[in-house]
Amino acid sequence: MSNNINLSLEQQFSIRAFATQVQEMNQQQAQDFLVKLYEQMMIREATYQHLLKHQWGLEQATGLE
What we know:
Strand content: under 5%
Radius of gyration: 18 Å
Order of helices and strands: HH
Structural class: mainly alpha
Helix content: 55-70%
Shape: flat
């Protein structure tokens, strides 16, 4: 992953706190957490795609409106 974007001090602190939280988990907790995190990332991506399509007028009419 590219590191061309600089994170704010607050974001860096958040990453550090997250790392500490994960280190305190057992393996099963960490695996479950990782799956949930990945699901949330997919939901966020789908939401962004939907919003961009709507904003740019790229959505196809469904006839259900």
